[in-house]
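S2.1 Query sequence (VOC family protein)
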Amino acid sequence: MSIPSHRTHASFAALPVADQDRAQRFCTEVLGFEGTAGLETPPCRRLRAAPRGAQTAFTLSGPGTGGFRPGSARGIMLATADADADRARPAAAGVQVDGPDDHPRGRPAAFRDPDGNGPMLLTEKEGL
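Output structure tokens follow.
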């Protein structure tokens, strides 16, 4: 017997940062994300940023939030139709961007945010 699921998408993912305001500026000014409403739940403050039109936002979780360590996030793939074009914006802002290179999954380009988190831009190969 299968039990139906009503889940539709991931609402948010926590991105551990040391300075939430700096992280939000990086997301909006360097990556072109939209800053969204934050959540104040003392003693924590949570700011959010998301790619335009995305269903999933990043909660920029500051020190003391959930035991996260700033700079520890890896494996976050930011899907893009053109990693080559989208690498230009962070590179122009002085961010070191490695790639994109051809891989079996597509064309990833790696970079680090000011805290050392390691998201990647990824143009996926069709059919994956």
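Residues 73-128 form a domain with the 2,3-Dihydroxybiphenyl 1,2-Dioxygenase; domain 1 fold (CATH 3.10.180.10). The radius of gyration is 16 Å.
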